Each structure stands twice: as C-alpha cells, then as structure tokens.
Amino acid sequence: xxxxxxxxxxxxxxxxxxxxxxxxxxxxxxxxxxxxxxxxxxxxxxxxxxxxxxxxxxxxxxxxxxxxxxxxxxxxxxxxxxxxxxxxxxxxxxxxxxxxxxxxxxxxxxxxxxxxxxxxxxxxxxxxxxxxxxxxxxxxxxxxxxxxxxxxxxxxxxxxxxxxxxxxxxxxxxxxxxxxxxxxxxxxxxxxxxxxx
Length: 197
Description:
An eight-stranded mixed β-sheet has the order 4-3-2-5-1-6-8-7. It starts with a strand and ends with a strand. With 197 residues, the protein is an alpha/beta fold. A hairpin with a 5-residue loop joins strand 7 (175-182) and strand 8 (188-194). Helix 1 runs parallel beside helix 3. Helix content is 26%, strand content 23%. The protein has a single domain, classed as Dihydrofolate Reductase, subunit A (3-Layer(aba) Sandwich). The chain is built from five helices and eight strands, in the order βαβααββαβαβββ.
C-alpha cells in the first residue's frame, strides 16, 4: 500500500495562499502573493526535486492543476528536473468544473467520491502519491484519514491572514516528527507522520 503525502509551503502562521507569485490568488483581498520565493534556495529546491521525482503520481485540486498545466509542459531547460516527472507521471485531479479529457498528458479526473477513489489509488502498487498544494483536496483527504504524511516547508514569516492549511473545525490531528532541517533562509523543511492520539 502506498502513502498519500501532503506537500505544502506555508507561513509560520499556517497560511498557504498564493505562495509563488503576486496575483496567484487574491481572494479575500490577499495582498502578499509571492511571499514564499524569498525563502526558497538551493537546499529547499533539492528537497522539492527529491520529493517530486520519487513520487508515483500526483493528487491535484483544480486551481493547482490549471496553474501547473499552464507552466510545466513548456518549462524552460533549467526546470526540467521538475518538469519531467510532473509531465510524465499520472496526475489525478479533483474538480467539479473540469471535463475529460484533460489537456495535460497523463492527467485524469477523480470521480465524485474522491475519498473512495484515492483509497483505491493508495491500495495500488507503486511509489507514493504526492498532493502538491491543493489545500481543499488535502482537507478532504485529511477528513477521511487518507493522508499519511505532511511534508511542509515552513517559512519564517507571519502573513496575518489568508487561506490557512489546517481547518479550524476542532478536529484533533496528532502527528509525529519524522525529519526536520533548517535552510539558510531560516525556513524549516519538516516531515510529520500521522499517528494516533
């Protein structure tokens, strides 16, 4: 049985909204788009490449899928270490609005019962499934106890508002630290495994 791994960039106060560039997601009048890039350096890039190249496939929400599908098929030469696995490995997309066939190679839609379908994918042989960003999808998977690990890059910044990764619904989520390292920007690269209380 393979794992589902949630792979997220987040601020110290748990915000995951618009990490990569200004204008990425301005919902709720969010004005800090692109906050993550100043903390991203060679060691964290190596960590990302390692995680992506070891995956057996990717779980993506619609917004993440659309951003990735617009970029990675035409990525420049210097980004091929990430582009190759992202373009070639299976991508399973959660969406209520997209229709088959999806335009990005090896991408397919998850059905209406996302939890059941991801449960089936977990039972298949192969490398682990990486859910990149896609926080609404990851929340569904967490609610159905389908996430085995959280791999987080936590940046030393508080954004004071924006979409947060962990839901504030009172659900207990016990975790065990598996690995951690800090990088030169002060960011932390951490892996937590789900555990029982």
